[in-house]
Design brief:
The chain is α+β, with helices and mostly antiparallel strands. It has six helices and five strands; from the N terminus they run βββααββαααα. A five-stranded antiparallel sheet has the order 3-2-1-5-4, covered by helices on one side.
Length: about 150
């Protein structure tokens, strides 16, 4: 996974732009900003027109780390099990998940799969229909719901 933090004087907070391991499928997270709708639309349109993959982004930035009034900073992140556990149970109570079993499954996963599983957590919880119980943490890891 390739991850960038985008900042600007035009808004507070940080926009997170991520690409998959192949440098494709950009995902934009603007939830930790105070961006106006028009700013969000501008950056989303720009991503899909000029930076639909990582190589296009690098070409647009052309060796620098800024574009317009936005600054881009690449982030190298390898989530730990503690990161996964905290993110999985953020904003919800702990269920009957076995931390020991989940950690064993986590440790048996390649680094790329760990990152994919970690990065999919928000989307997984967002797509669960109301009234449906989410998977136990260890089941989430073994079922590989992030693989499509």
């Amino acid at each position: 996974m390739i991850k960038y933090i985008i900042t600007s004087e035009a808004f507070t907070g940080e926009v997170v732009l991520t690409y998959d391991e192949k440098g494709e499928r950009p995902m934009l997270d603007v939830f930790n900003t105070n961006m106006r709708v028009d700013q969000h639309k501008w950056i989303a349109d720009w991503i899909y027109e000029s930076a639909i993959n990582h190589n296009m982004l690098l070409g647009t930035l052309n060796g620098g780390n800024t574009f317009g009034r936005c600054k881009f900073r690449q982030v190298v992140f390898e989530p730990t099990f503690a990161n996964f556990w905290a993110a999985y149970f953020k904003n919800r109570h702990k269920d009957n998940s076995s931390k020991k079993t989940a950690e064993r499954r986590w440790n048996n996963m390649p680094k790329g799969e760990q990152l994919a599983a970690y990065n999919y957590i928000k989307q997984y919880f967002f797509q669960i229909p109301e009234g449906t119980q989410p998977k136990l943490a260890e089941t989430y890891l073994s079922s590989e719901v992030w693989v499509k």
